[in-house]
Amino acid sequence: MQYQPASSHSAAIIGASGYVGAELSRLVQQHPALSLFGCYVSEHSSDAGTLLSDLYPQYAHCLKIPLQGLTDNEKSSIKHQADTVFLCTEHNISVALAPEFLEAGLKVIDLSGGFRLDAVEDYPPFYGFEHKQAHWLRQAVYGLAEWYPHEIAEAQLVAVPGCYPTASLMALLPLKKAGLLKSSKVIINAVSGVTGAGRKASLATQGAELSLQAYGLFEHRHTPEITQQLQHEVLFTPHLAQFPRGILATLYAELNDDTSDTDLTSAYQCYAEQPLVRFKKLARPAIKDVVQQPFVDIGWHRQGNQLIVLSAIDNLLKGAASQAIQCINLQLGLPVEEGLL
Amino acid sequence: MQYQPASSHSAAIIGASGYVGAELSRLVQQHPALSLFGCYVSEHSSDAGTLLSDLYPQYAHCLKIPLQGLTDNEKSSIKHQADTVFLCTEHNISVALAPEFLEAGLKVIDLSGGFRLDAVEDYPPFYGFEHKQAHWLRQAVYGLAEWYPHEIAEAQLVAVPGCYPTASLMALLPLKKAGLLKSSKVIINAVSGVTGAGRKASLATQGAELSLQAYGLFEHRHTPEITQQLQHEVLFTPHLAQFPRGILATLYAELNDDTSDTDLTSAYQCYAEQPLVRFKKLARPAIKDVVQQPFVDIGWHRQGNQLIVLSAIDNLLKGAASQAIQCINLQLGLPVEEGLL
Amino acid sequence: MQYQPASSHSAAIIGASGYVGAELSRLVQQHPALSLFGCYVSEHSSDAGTLLSDLYPQYAHCLKIPLQGLTDNEKSSIKHQADTVFLCTEHNISVALAPEFLEAGLKVIDLSGGFRLDAVEDYPPFYGFEHKQAHWLRQAVYGLAEWYPHEIAEAQLVAVPGCYPTASLMALLPLKKAGLLKSSKVIINAVSGVTGAGRKASLATQGAELSLQAYGLFEHRHTPEITQQLQHEVLFTPHLAQFPRGILATLYAELNDDTSDTDLTSAYQCYAEQPLVRFKKLARPAIKDVVQQPFVDIGWHRQGNQLIVLSAIDNLLKGAASQAIQCINLQLGLPVEEGLL
Amino acid sequence: MQYQPASSHSAAIIGASGYVGAELSRLVQQHPALSLFGCYVSEHSSDAGTLLSDLYPQYAHCLKIPLQGLTDNEKSSIKHQADTVFLCTEHNISVALAPEFLEAGLKVIDLSGGFRLDAVEDYPPFYGFEHKQAHWLRQAVYGLAEWYPHEIAEAQLVAVPGCYPTASLMALLPLKKAGLLKSSKVIINAVSGVTGAGRKASLATQGAELSLQAYGLFEHRHTPEITQQLQHEVLFTPHLAQFPRGILATLYAELNDDTSDTDLTSAYQCYAEQPLVRFKKLARPAIKDVVQQPFVDIGWHRQGNQLIVLSAIDNLLKGAASQAIQCINLQLGLPVEEGLL
């Protein structure tokens, strides 16, 4: 695909009022090759008609953009005039909305979980709704940008990975692909900031209720996402912390016998030229080092066959919005980090 | 009044599911001279029927107490069998509930703002409702325990002070009573933890929304409360911080000419025998030093006629629940700190 | 052993100026059966001569106790007049100090790691010093209060467990003793507040440097402590968080085939009568629920043979000072929770 | 002054290992018109020889820059080859270093307090050292970028304002210059994150010691800085909070009689075209909205003659490093926000 001249590619953002939507709006807004077609919320949302910068004073200088209700008229104008739709909507809303934009010929980059799993059968148990878009689910490409650049470049529908799966898969895929993982289950202990729960009133995320606590034991919907992508059994346990942003995943894996340090180094060599992966052998990534940054920080430590990989991201960026930008960069033939550094 | 034998005095707590209600339930529960008659919530609350310890796992060892819906039957049994009712309800609910318990002869200790202001006319502008209990409002004694011990001891209805007023008045009343304050307005800059906003879902108190921000400028309802009690004009500005508990008030006052250090020392001498006031001339009270403690920490600093007083409390304890216990201690003729240290 | 009349048992605290020492001083001070003989710091410490309450304004009401330099004279008076010495000193200092008090006939309760490991050979690799007290190391009883009450009651020298080992062992020992653990290694992912690093100036614990980060991978000295006590291989990975107090351990264990829920319930039944263990099958313990409390909160979750146990403590209390009080309570024939609730 | 072609202007940073130095290194590094000549620390610093990115893993992608000891050789090469020196050194070190670079004809932008006050006599009482550079102190231009653009553009020596003074003066100067302030003292209540204390080991800034506490009452060195610049008496009280970055100043001022809202609006109209000032009449700036941003957020609220102005900045950016960039932009004839958005 040819390089597109600046601002020629027009992107609409639906569900722009959430934490991810606002980050994405900012990134699209400042992207040299994208123009922001518009920011949309549900027609019935009380946010419709307000400025995005009223919800996010931190972006008062750049997001004086009206949040528009997604009426039929607006949908129609998006279909006729925009090139790509980013969906930052609830899972089931994404599934409902995506097909009409796809059928109108637009590209859709979905940041929900609506098109991440392998099959419609996975949706009722993990997402609690019937998924009626088996066709589009099959078409969807998993948007882990460093791993599927060609597929993403060609895809009409991209399912941007979940935040925990991004932190986990970026750490584990090099090992899996290199055949270094023993068949035993990988344990993923992850801690997330509270923006991961979304921008909404909830007693569980009231400031005074937060400290550090596990949740979703054995049943979090990111478990099948990781398993399907990794093709390896994992035990994933998320924890909610009191800080606003960031995920730290501590991953415990067993290596095949005779795995050398050199094998590990070679495996992670896949990231050598990746501008948004900061890999360092003995690094101990920290939440503070990735907050408000589009990177994933990775380090590994071993003792015999026992491997620990540490992986940190900003859940709203590499775990959502900046990875979505990586995907559209790939589609536009741009460097993957365009507009992100 | 005679000392009451242990557990002879029976107290019911209405509105027990909130942050203040839970602290108060714990304090009553462990108080040597009180027995907890019962913990109540609104008849229609979804918390009715659950254990208080299910809402507050930190008190799993001591608050396995059912939250009962406040039905007519329950009200009747409180009236016939309990001695004191603590109201931890919304302001207007307190105003509605207090009279029937008072008329049944019970003591009422109200932790809301329903009986704190001087006159019913103050309620519509600051609390947004018509106050129809002028009689009881006149009867109410302001429960600032160190200042009105005799009045509280005799009162049938006690209005426990607000959290900000407690921090402010404890710092300023010694100066006012000693005649050291110039007539110019006192500036009160205060910062509170998020429990001050109550236990409820709200976007403004979502963990990710918190940092440090002023609110209620010129119009917070604690302004008239402080002014009326202090009989001095104040400019009170609260701020919401991201920590769970605690208030730090930084108070700026002008001293009358010729006020000596000795005058100041004498003024604060009123606290010399008060077990729950930790006064120290040049102290710089910190939030961490008062959290989960029933104390108010006070220090002063001056330069010429300019005085700064620093005052810190736990908003849920000295700012609410433990001060309510001080009030009932006074009523029972017990040491003011009974059950608190 | 006979019950001791109140205040008859005299305890000296050496290393009282640290976070653990201060908590312990407070607990001894308010304990109905103990009298605080004195609080000591190194003879050369700049803290010598100051009041403990000057270092800990939160305890201004109860710890107006001078920190005395531990001169030879002071040692001598301790030996002649005190009954028990609590050591809150550095590991090697404890090893150096304990024998002389033991030989003088006192009981010693050591809160350092100086007497926790099985053999002197374990010390150079994990603690970096030669341990020359093999005799006393053999005499030392591991002070995990719920597990070794009789041994502790009889011991002259008690080694109070480390904070992470306490959280870990309290969760795992019931399973191990009941024979439910498969031989595969147990993974312990733990997160601690910054008081765990001790009260000292250090760039790594400067407020702005903290967020969430793993440390001590594969080499933390609590690994051999846990392994030796559990008699089971573990992989222990600590993390430093930005909150002040508390540890949350997330433990991943494999159960033997055919382990039923009933087996698990039976195993944890050992805690049914323990007043300082708050066990609940599906509980998800949170840091905020244990801070400033002497409890360990434990819950378990399973899926097939995979078990996750969650365990939370206050690192300064159940992880140190309050557990030391449990030990002395056992020695004095008092209820284990005496002075703690 | 003419626009300089990209990368033609070469800047050395001395004291680059601190929090401010690192931010400034990043900003210079990514600035389109600057080239980073080198990053320096004291010859004897243990940081000499390490990479800046080793101290700041969050900047691992952009600051793989060696910290060089500032030997005589290095000084000489800076003098001969660099155009501007940024000093992020201790106050007295700046005073010692600046003259030799100035005399060599370089521009010096000093981020310490070494050249901020009016006269050498102010230094012993507020900075604790004799200031022997009266000549250069007179030459120094106060680098409050929005207020003294022409003077800064022409200056050889710029004294970048302190963090608290920046937050305070940006809020107050419009009022003062418009003649709206009554002569009574302005009260400045300010709260700062812990990076304000600098990157160094210190017990007072250990994570567990932080909460919210006033300090420097009546004697902070930013008081004379504000007073001299504002030409108005102020009472400035700083507080240390537990968050890493950001300052919120709440300013209490009295307006002259007959000051209208229009007068206030007109006064702040001076910022209408300023890209790094986000002014909004009733705004309530929050720390979270300015962190990691080069803006100052300002809002005002009044009641009669009483005015409250709220002002928030990132102490490391608008309070130091990004304001230093504004200054060099002015000197190079670039837009003031060049390289900052």
UniProtKB/TrEMBL annotation, chains A, B, C, D:
Residue numbers annotated as active site: C163
Oxidoreductase found in the keyword field: yes
Domain of life of the source: Bacteria
The keyword NADP is assigned to this record: yes
GO cellular component terms, A-Z: cytoplasm
Gene Ontology process terms (BP): L-arginine biosynthetic process
Enzymatic reactions: N-acetyl-L-glutamate 5-semialdehyde + phosphate + NADP(+) = N-acetyl-L-glutamyl 5-phosphate + NADPH + H(+)
Entry's family note: Belongs to the NAGSA dehydrogenase family. Type 1 subfamily.
Cited function: Catalyzes the NADPH-dependent reduction of N-acetyl-5-glutamyl phosphate to yield N-acetyl-L-glutamate 5-semialdehyde.
Protein name, per record: N-acetyl-gamma-glutamyl-phosphate reductase
UniProt organism field: Idiomarina abyssalis
Gene: argC
